[in-house]
Write a structure and sequence with these properties.
heterodimer, A: 130 residues, 5 helices, B: alpha+beta, five-stranded mixed beta sheet, 51% helix
Chain lengths: 130, 462
């Protein structure tokens, strides 16, 4: 069974994501700030990470950088779910090694769920931090 | 104010100036002496002849004495005239010089009072003058920098730290291209650059500079640059950008929450819904989407107005743009049975593709919104010698004549638009107009109430 780590500080968004993912029969863990991420990563290694960028304690960009630098986690697909929409921010995330980027307010949640299953089926090549 | 203590540092040597007064006087005296010598030689010849004649005829003649008197008398008069002449020239020179010094003092005072930095170079780009403000900005003292080549001594980088090659510096452009421009026209070639200058100590300073050629009698004799320290502006820009990011995030987050939670309910994940519950949810969902569009538009406006998004210039195919528009708006159109027709002929255009696409999206979106069902919208592009013109034609409600002048105002919605569709934000055309200006394009339109409208965007091409 595939395991997904949700990194998001807004409760209601966590809830929506969790409910939709568990319906698809994925197991889910949640981190609600930039430091808790690493606790959760150590507890159980996920097959995919959904990462918000604006997080308390440590922001999503720094989390992404560290994840991509660690040999244990650098190959895990990371999908950014953010409400920052600037081209420069998107580019920065992709340059740091994110596999995909969604602006939450502009996509139905179903789209995200479908993209998750695509990545889990291995339909996208793994991206390594260059 | 003596030349030695001026705040404006410059090379003391001025080439090709008028000769000094001493030289003129010496030359005149020299000429006088030579003329006198020749005259007296000629006269000696004549006198000799008369002496011989006297010997031959035995008569004493007063001729020689008279000649000598006349000669010396003439020379005396000439000398006096010369004296006055030279004195007049000398005085005139003095007047000119003091006037020149006065003007110079005034210019220097003006230059020192402006906050901007100024540097002047010769035709090869070597610095010949610099004011205090520029000295401070560049971290160089006048004495040290004068005579050196500007580009060699003040390198520049872009914001990411990459050095700008010498040929791409504004001053290079001005010095090279002004030479090309001179033969045919008084074509003014000024070049701006917004870069980071590297100061003498290696630190960077953000500068907005304009370089201009100095042309005298159709010859390029140098360049002058005006430098402005934009550190404060850059700081403000960064603060605005951060604020924009924050606002963007804070506004969008609750909207995405509502969106996803309703979608989750509608999927039935929390149990089945009765018909009325579904309808209510649909209503809430639509309201939320309206808010979302409004926030999206307002953030676009904020972003544009604060100049945060830089303009790119790429070669882009009109086909790519049309395809993108079809993808984005095709569904909305077919939902009301409106067909989108795209013209076949395609061109390559040099512009910011995103901005252009946004403008056309705005037009097509309006065409769809304000057309009745079962009509068509025509999107085309044609090329003229000077521009590329895109057209978006609809058979919709048109724009009343007395409201046409306000169409591009922020939040303005025409009266018939408001009755036809209560939801618009009034920002679409405002944004389109703004974007058009940014890419150097302009917008025109033709319209007739209840017949339809055609909106054009004209992109100049060289």
């Amino acid at each position: 069974m595939n395991h997904i780590l949700i990194v998001e500080d807004e409760e209601f968004l966590v809830r929506a994501l969790k409910d939709n993912l568990t319906t698809e029969k994925y197991s889910v863990s949640v981190a609600m700030d930039g430091e808790a991420v690493f606790d959760e990563l150590k507890k159980k290694k996920p097959d995919l990470i959904l990462l918000d960028l604006m997080l308390p304690k440590k922001n999503g960009f720094d989390v992404l950088k560290e994840v991509r630098q660690s040999p244990e986690w650098q190959l895990i697909p990371v999908i950014i779910l953010s409400n920052l929409g600037e081209d420069s921010e998107i580019k920065r995330a992709l340059d740091l090694g994110a596999n995909d980027y969604f602006v939450k307010s502009q996509h139905p949640i179903q789209e995200i769920i479908e993209k998750v299953s695509e990545y889990l089926k291995g339909e996208h090549t793994q991206k390594l931090h260059s | 104010m003596s030349l030695n203590s001026t705040p404006l540092k410059e090379l003391r040597q001025v080439k090709g100036d008028a000769f000094s007064n001493k030289t003129i006087t010496s030359i005149f005296i020299g000429i006088l002496v030579i003329v006198a010598t020749f005259l007296s030689l000629s006269f000696s010849r004549v006198i000799e002849m008369f002496v011989v004649e006297q010997r031959v005829t035995g008569e004493t003649s007063t001729f020689v004495r008279d000649m000598q008197l006349t000669l010396w008398g003439t020379m005396f008069i000439l000398a006096v005239l010369m004296y006055f002449f030279i004195r007049a020239i000398y005085r005139h020179q003095e007047q000119l010089l003091s006037k020149k010094l006065e003007e110079k003092a005034m210019d220097e005072a003006i230059l020192e009072s402006i906050g901007e930095g100024m540097i002047a170079t010769d035709g090869s780009g070597n610095i010949i003058a610099i004011n205090n403000a520029a000295e401070d900005m560049l971290g160089w003292s006048g004495e040290d920098i004068i005579g050196k080549n500007f580009i060699d001594v003040v390198p520049a980088t872009d914001d990411s730290g990459e050095y700008i090659p010498k040929e791409k510096r504004a001053i290079s452009y001005v010095l090279i291209n002004s030479m090309k421009a001179i033969p045919d026209s008084i074509h003014y070639v000024a070049m701006p650059e917004e870069v980071q200058y590297v100061r003498k100590d290696g630190t960077h300073i953000p500068i907005s500079a304009t370089m201009n050629p100095i042309i005298l009698n159709k010859i390029l004799i140098g360049a002058v640059g005006i430098l402005r320290d934009v550190s404060r502006e850059k700081e403000l820009e960064e603060t605005r950008r951060d604020l924009l990011s924050l606002a963007s995030h804070q506004l969008r987050t609750p909207l995405s929450g509502v969106k996803w939670l309703i979608e989750t309910l509608k999927k039935g994940l929390k149990g089945p819904l009765n018909k009325e519950q579904e309808e209510y949810l649909d209503e809430i969902y639509k309201i939320n989407d309206r808010m979302n569009s409004l926030v999206q538009d307002m953030l676009s406006v904020l972003r544009m107005e604060s100049g945060v998004t830089p303009i790119k210039k790429d070669n882009v195919s009109t086909k790519v743009i049309f395809d993108a528009i079809n993808e984005i708006l095709g569904a909305a159109a077919s939902g009301r049975n409106i067909t989108l027709h795209f013209s076949d002929e395609h061109f390559t255009i040099e512009t910011d593709a995103t901005f252009l696409r946004n403008i056309l999206e705005s037009f097509v979106s309006n065409a769809i919104t304000y057309s009745p069902n079962d009509t068509a919208v025509y999107i085309s592009v044609r090329k003229s010698p000077t521009e590329l013109v895109f057209a978006v034609k609809d058979s919709g409600i048109g724009i009343p004549p007395d409201e046409q002048s306000r169409l591009f105002e922020r939040f303005y919605r025409a009266s018939n638009a408001k009755t036809f569709n209560t939801h618009g934000t009034g920002l679409g055309l405002y944004i389109a107009g703004f974007l058009a200006k940014k890419i150097g394009a302009h917008i025109t339109f033709e319209t007739e109430v209840n017949k339809g409208s055609t909106f054009y965007v004209h992109i100049p091409q060289h």
